Amino acid sequence: MEATKPPVRIGLIGFGCVGQGFYDIVQRQPGLGLAVTRIAVKNADKPRILPSERFSFRADELLDDPELDLLVEVIDDPIEAFRLVSTALRLGRRVVTANKAMVARHLPELVQLQQHFGGALLYEAAVCGSIPIIRTLDSYFGHEPLQAVSGIFNGSSNYVLTRMSEEGSDYNEALAEAQARGFAETDPSLDMGAFDARSKAVILAAHAFGVFLNPDEVLNLGIEGIGAADVAYAARLGQKIKLVAGLYQLPSGRLTVLVTPQLVGSASPLFEVGHEFNGVLIDAAFAGPQFLRGRGAGGHPTGSAVLADVLALQRGFRYGYAKRQPGTELQLTKGLEGDFYLRHADEAVLRTTLQQLEIPVKALRSDEHSLYATGAVQLELLHQLRDWLRTTGVFVARVGEVSATQPARETAAVRAQE
């Protein structure tokens, strides 16, 4: 009689929304041959669904445990996550992480640690929840040129925007509901400020175009300043406002990456992506356009991506980074401009904004809802002023394509309806 194969022993670091979601999925599927044998958490006094004896309170104990076959890191602190994951990789361990801010900030070093010490790191759960976008780009499109990868990468902000456009909720009401349902953190600034989506775009750039980016160099504008007037403006045009991340190959061959609110029309698949769902558009040179849609937030959807990585590690899967090569030229903001919509309740603030962004005052418009402006804006200026725009509450959304400024205007594969 054949001996029963022992289960894969997993050390779980973090037991918040994603950690509990992953744990529940494993418990519901005993046939997978997985066992979460140790769980490390930070706060010993926090009430939990499992008895206290199930938990360790020093994550380093799991790193040093030879009985564990692999580690799953799902904490929300990117600094501590990097310390734990990098230490585990130096020990040659196999690790799954969902910490997108940590991966985006340290990806070159994480790749180097795997190569040097023989460990392995997978992070599908770090980008777009349940959508298998990293594996798709790394494996399926690993050797096909891509013209663009764009979409809604953050379920929390998309939930807020959906509630505002479809239910008439104001921003604070919609945000509070997203937090109550577990789609947004108590501190929502990373989601609403587009920092979360920026981290995901940086990660995808490595797999889609072979480029390792510094997150700070990528333009990100959030939705903190949005109001009913902005939603109404888009609706009058038959459009919706979405927070869209985009990686675009310019006609020059250079790559640009940005994350901004964007007016999206009904011709785009993103138009119907609502609530906590994410949607990713892939424009491949030979395969043509592809669209993936799935839940981008929540314990079970993200936990399912963690599970997929755990099973992939067991099969020996590693990311290939097939497109990585030196010399890929970037054009993140310099020499590029786009058409934007800008609004603020205070006319003086809006006029100052137009001056800062070198938009003529004659671009000011008014309707029954508010005073606003539209015009061409240099992306470099938006990047320089993004903190000021966020602090003053000016809402900015892209309404047109991105193109090169003088001396030569080259049309990019970036359109507002994509």
Write up what this structure looks like.
It is a single chain. The protein is an alpha/beta fold. Among the domains are: about 120 residues, NAD(P)-binding Rossmann-like Domain (Rossmann fold), CATH 3.40.50.720; about 150 residues, Dihydrodipicolinate Reductase, domain 2 (2-Layer Sandwich). Helix content is about 35%, strand content about 25%. The protein is built from 13 helices and 16 strands. The strands form three sheets. The protein has a six-stranded parallel sheet, sandwiched between helices. Helix 4 links the parallel strand 5 and strand 6. Helix 1 packs across helix 11, helix 5 packs parallel to helix 9 and helix 6 packs across helix 7. The chain starts with 7 loop residues before the first strand and ends in a 14-residue tail after the last strand. The C terminus is likely disordered.
Summarize the topology.
Elements: E1 8-13, H1 17-28, E2 34-40, E3 55-56, H2 60-63, E4 70-73, H3 78-90, E5 94-97, H4 100-117, E6 120-122, H5 133-140, E7 146-152, H6 155-167, H7 171-180, H8 189-192, H9 195-208, E8 219-220, H10 228-236, E9 239-249, E10 255-265, E11 277-284, E12 288-295, H11 299-314, E13 336-343, H12 347-356, E14 364-366, E15 371-378, H13 379-392, E16 395-404
Parallel strand pairs: 1-2, 1-4, 2-3, 4-5, 5-6, 8-10
Antiparallel strand pairs: 7-9, 7-11, 9-10, 11-12, 13-15, 13-16, 14-15
